[in-house]
């Protein structure tokens, strides 16, 4: 039953990614005073499926200089890691009440950087390698802040079980208690998913297309799918931690949709930062604040217990 429900979930996730891309193109179109996709199907609703057919039917490049085995396997590995995170999705037959759920999320999200690192290195391209180095430094820096913030709640709950977010926020959201933590965690999620204004691994205006410069056809679509799957799951995690984890209500999923909309809104509103400012924000602002909260929660838990 778990395998059946998980397979249905994966199919629905891939469909949601397709319509999330359509939502992004529509919202960016309205932000930039243009209509966005409107030709394929009613109001462009079939545009994601035509894009998928075009991507999977286009010609795939063959690299003469590069490690072909790693080149072809890494996009698939990135997609598998992204889909593996959805084991924590709230269904009756899953690992949501798995005692180490938050630790499972931390371990899987840490592996994402390896797919970008190895896919860039195996491409044997200067632009890909630059995007790779930026992405690795960015992910390592912001993962420290992201995991420190999550450790605050681990001390608070005295465990890694994600169901404790559901039980603890029935009367009061953690957003009220830790609003600065939410802002820092949201910025870290933007950096982890390589979204604007932190999209330095792709950097179209500087690196052609960044780490995926040499990818095309189905390989590029796997990278594309893993990125958007990560964004949807990170929105789910943010809502679960700060906005009340009532998995059994429609409002919970509306809040997840609103967080996904904010990803798009930020992309249409802010320019890309300078790389040195990205690192300065992490190590000089976000990390000290996260550490102060960390020691504050630690001292409170020592006094309580």
TrEMBL record:
InterPro entries, per the entry: NADH_UbQ_OxRdtase_su1/FPO (IPR001694), NADH_UbQ_OxRdtase_su1_CS (IPR018086)
Annotated GO biological process: aerobic respiration
Keyword terms of this UniProt record: Membrane, Mitochondrion, Mitochondrion inner membrane, NAD, Transmembrane, Transmembrane helix, Transport, Ubiquinone
EC number: 7.1.1.2
One Pfam family here: NADHdh
Molecular-function GO term, any one: NADH dehydrogenase (ubiquinone) activity
Transmembrane domains' residue ranges: 6-23, 61-86, 98-119, 140-160, 172-191, 220-241, 247-266, 278-304
Reactions listed under catalytic activity: a ubiquinone + NADH + 5 H(+)(in) = a ubiquinol + NAD(+) + 4 H(+)(out)
Membrane disposition: Multi-pass membrane protein
Location in the cell: Mitochondrion inner membrane
Principal subcellular localisation of the protein: mitochondrion
GO cellular component entries: mitochondrial inner membrane
Its job: Core subunit of the mitochondrial membrane respiratory chain NADH dehydrogenase (Complex I) that is believed to belong to the minimal assembly required for catalysis. Complex I functions in the transfer of electrons from NADH to the respiratory chain. The immediate electron acceptor for the enzyme is believed to be ubiquinone.
Family the entry assigns: Belongs to the complex I subunit 1 family.
Name the record gives this protein: NADH-ubiquinone oxidoreductase chain 1
Biological source species: Nilaparvata lugens
Gene that encodes the chain: ND1
């Amino acid at each position: 039953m778990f395998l059946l429900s998980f397979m249905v979930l994966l199919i629905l996730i891939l469909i949601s990614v397709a319509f999330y891309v359509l939502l992004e193109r529509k919202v960016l179109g309205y932000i930039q005073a243009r209509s966005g996709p409107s030709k394929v199907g009613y109001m462009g609703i079939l545009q994601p499926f035509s894009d998928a057919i075009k991507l999977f039917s286009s010609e795939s490049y063959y690299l003469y200089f590069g490690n072909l085995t790693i080149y072809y396997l890494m996009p698939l590995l990135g997609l598998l890691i992204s889909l593996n995170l959805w084991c924590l999705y709230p269904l009756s037959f899953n690992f949501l009440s798995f005692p180490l759920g938050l630790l499972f999320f931390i371990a899987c999200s840490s592996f994402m950087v390896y797919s970008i690192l190895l896919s860039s290195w195996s491409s044997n391209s200067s632009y890909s390698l630059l995007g790779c180095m930026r992405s690795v430094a960015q992910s390592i820096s912001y993962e420290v802040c992201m995991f420190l913030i999550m450790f605050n709640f681990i001390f608070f709950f005295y465990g890694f079980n994600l169901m404790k977010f559901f039980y603890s926020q029935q009367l009061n959201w953690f957003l009220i208690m830790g609003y600065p933590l939410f802002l820092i965690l949201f910025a870290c999620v933007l950096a982890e998913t390589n979204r604007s204004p932190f999209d330095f691994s792709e950097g179209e205006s500087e690196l052609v297309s960044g780490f995926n410069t040499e990818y095309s056809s189905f390989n590029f679509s796997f990278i594309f799918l893993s990125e958007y799957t990560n964004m949807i799951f990170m929105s789910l995690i943010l809502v679960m931690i700060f906005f009340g984890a009532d998995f059994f209500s429609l409002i919970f999923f509306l809040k997840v949709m609103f967080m996904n909309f904010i990803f798009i809104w930020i992309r249409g509103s802010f320019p890309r930062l300078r790389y040195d400012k990205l690192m300065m924000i992490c190590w000089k602002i976000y990390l000290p604040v996260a550490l102060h909260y960390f020691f504050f929660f630690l001292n409170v838990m020592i006094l309580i217990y």
